[in-house]
Amino acid sequence: MLSKEDQRRFEQITRHLRESDPAFFARLDNRARARRSRYLMLLTIVLWASLPAATVLGGRLAGAICAVVLLANAAVMWRYRRRWL
After folding, report:
1. Per-residue exposure over 43-53, b if at least 16 CB sit within 10 Å of its own CB, e if not
2. Distance (Å, whole) CA 55 – CA 59
3. Residue 21 — φ and ψ, nearest 5°?
4. Structural Rg of the chain based on CA atoms
5. pLDDT digits (tens, 9 = 90+) for 20-72
6. Half-sphere exposure of 35 (CA within 13 A, CB side)
7. Taking the model in full, what pTM does it have?
8. CA nearest 76: which of 40, 45, 31, 35?
9. Is the torsion defined by CA of 31, 37, 43, 49 positive or negative?
10. If we measure between CA atoms, which residue out of 73, 80, 8 comes closest to residue 37?
């Protein structure tokens, strides 16, 4: 954790960087978005892989819950689909 003074200084440096070199700041932002996209894709793979096991081991209710989570995941991926293209 940063102290209040350190946090204020960090925000000041970040704001100055954003204003002085927007191209560099945009590249950093794109890297963070790509990392979140990879995590979302990994979550999708894990959910699809666990659906049959959840259905067999937990019954129909567990399979239905996993399917609903997969639908929500698909909606999020559809919302941010431009990141994948």
Report:
1. eeeebeebbee
2. 5
3. -140, 75
4. 20
5. 888 877 777 666 666 777 787 888 888 888 888 888 988 989 888 888 988 88
6. 6
7. 0.48
8. 40
9. negative
10. 80
